[in-house]
């Protein structure tokens, strides 16, 4: 196993523990579930209500990352709970998007997914939430720990996460794209 693969597996472990802690705190608390659903709006007063459920478990991350990645994904995981699979079985959000596209006859999923791939992280919350709402209605599986890990790398200059998602969505082989080491991270971008 490469150093990068070990780092990613360890990172997924952190995401798994975080989501399990949030799930454990909210699974029998309907009031908390309602708070998480309202927090999907992004309104500060609703976000503050979920802080006691998420902030103790996030670890050392920036406030910006908490607001744009950790809290939104925690809210989605409470809104549409999914079993948390072991790291090596986790699939990226492109597979979930493909599952949704296969479950509907609409071309809208393709259009929404294509638009999602072009968004900056700061703009991704609302379109991602809309897709998860659709996935919930069609009972499409989502691996939230992998989603968290991917969103943490969303702004990488090589956009390898977006490439992985696109290849998974459009059924292109992803074997060489599952390892970020296949991308030259030392290359300067123009």
UniProtKB/TrEMBL annotation:
CDD domains: Cse2_I-E
Protein name: CRISPR-associated protein, Cse2 family
Record Gene3D superfamilies: CRISPR-associated protein Cse2
Organism: Cyanothece sp. (strain PCC 7425 / ATCC 29141)
Domain of life from the UniProt record: Bacteria
InterPro entries: CRISPR-assoc_prot_Cse2, Cse2_sf
